[in-house]
Specification:
11 helices, 80% helix, 196 residues
């Protein structure tokens, strides 16, 4: 059964239109996508265990050090992991107090994996930059907060995402999104729409 699940996950992953777009982009996009794929695979294919929680915490740290936007992609997996951990803690013990302690233990396992990943990333980045202490996501955020730095790389209008990027990411689904997301928006906001 586990081999079939892995095959389905691989087939599903390779049939996605964004895969072709993101893998033709910079290396960080590809690494971010791999971190997300591994996170999803670990979450779906392994039972809830200490190793699973530590591994997902580690992948969260590695993904954030690759690109800080990874947090948004990891969020559904993280919420699902927290909910799983909470319900498993409640099932394992009858007392509410003991369940909370067990849940906090599970939470610290995730945090431990994240701290390990953070430490290793800071260590390797600092070695790479000739021993200079480097926290890559912090440097990235500080760089991107300065408008003059963004102007060097070229600013683009927000509508470019809807005209160019959304069709690249979603393919034919974009027509559906445009139709129901933009054209029908006024109809759903109209109070008389349901009375017709």
């Amino acid at each position: 059964k586990e081999k079939n699940d892995l095959l389905i996950l691989k087939l599903d992953f390779h049939q996605r239109n964004p895969i072709y777009f993101f893998y033709s982009r910079p290396f960080s996009n590809t690494m971010e996508a791999f971190c997300l794929a591994y996170s999803l695979g670990i979450y779906l294919l392994y039972d809830t265990s200490t190793l699973k929680r530590v591994a997902l915490g580690f992948l969260l740290a590695f993904g954030v050090f690759t690109r800080f936007t990874f947090i948004a992609f990891f969020l559904p997996i993280g919420i699902a992991l927290l909910l799983d951990s909470y319900y498993i803690a409640k099932r394992k013990t009858k007392k509410e107090h003991d369940a909370r302690i067990l849940f906090v233990t599970y939470l610290f396992q995730c945090i431990g994996g994240s701290l390990l990943g953070t430490f290793l990333n800071i260590l390797f980045d600092s070695i790479y930059y000739n021993g200079q202490f480097t926290i890559t996501p912090l440097n990235n955020a500080l760089y991107n907060m300065k408008t003059e730095n963004l102007a060097q790389h070229g600013l683009h209008p927000r509508y470019l995402h809807f005209i160019v990027n959304l069709p690249i990411l979603c393919g034919p689904l974009t027509i559906y999104l445009y139709y129901y997301g933009f054209l029908k928006r006024n109809a759903f906001g109209n109070k008389n729409y349901n009375k017709k």
